[in-house]
Amino acid sequence: MLAAPPVFYLIPGLGADERVFQFLQLCGEVHVLRWLAPQTPAEPLPHYAARLAAAVPTGQPCWLVGVSFGGVLAQEVAALRPLARVVLISSFVSPRELPWVGRLARTTGLHRLVPAQLLPLLPRVAQWFFGARNGGEYRLLRQILRDTDPAFTRWAIAQLLQWPGRPWLPIVRIHGTTDRLLPAGAALSQHALPGGHLIIINQAAEISHILNELAENLNGRHAERSGKDASLHSA
Question: Which residues form the AB hydrolase-1 domain (predicted)?
């Protein structure tokens, strides 16, 4: 029995959109879960995730692929969709993985003193942190920063820093070995790839291969199990 084609739901990082997925080549049905505007400046992350999960049918086996902050949302959506499997790209599962600046902001609330409008004005600083390696990556990063809504950024950073994590959730992790934003992730990932926080762009071919292989292996196991079940019923 042939398994159904895999279904991928892609969740971009903070302020980003489907542009970060433009170089992926996935074999299956692909949807991008677009960011929603927070209902209030203090909307809890689980409540937000429930609204985002409305686009994912409850009984549908699928892959939730989240990049950076999108990985946090992927984990929250997966808690509401038991048939979903999670892949994190340049993301984290516990606040213990945040760099010292993030842990300090989590403890002290220091991030509230930094205007969200400041980030788009510092594209070269962002280039270093994100590891944008060439003109094309830098231009894309600059466009994403320019298009980011400051109110959404402020909400997302506050929610990210308050997030307790879901370290018990079964996930597959893909991380850059020189990620300056989340440097601890590579050592905790099944797939450590050369590059920084933007491996979704500059390692898109390898990430596509990993995702397609994961989906193919899972579909193969499901098809084998279905064939065994059919044989038992016909015996």
Answer: 10-204
* Per-residue pLDDT tens digits for 149-175: 778 888 888 888 888 888 788 899 999
Rounded Cα distance, 49 and 93, in Å: 16
> Is beta strand 171-176 parallel, antiparallel or unpaired with respect to 62-67?
unpaired
The answer to whether 123 and 184 have CB atoms below 8 angstroms apart is no
φ/ψ of 32, rounded to 5, equals -105, 125
Rounded Cα distance, 53 and 79, in Å: 10
7-234 fold: Rossmann fold (3.40.50)
When pLDDT is cut at 50, 70 and 90, the band that residue 229 belongs to is very low
Q: Where are the beta strands (DSSP E) in 130-208?
A: 171-176, 191-193
d(CA 21, CA 50): 23
Please state, in angstroms and as integers, the Cα–Cα distance from residue 125 to each residue in 30, 47, 70, 86, 129, following that order: 33, 33, 22, 31, 6
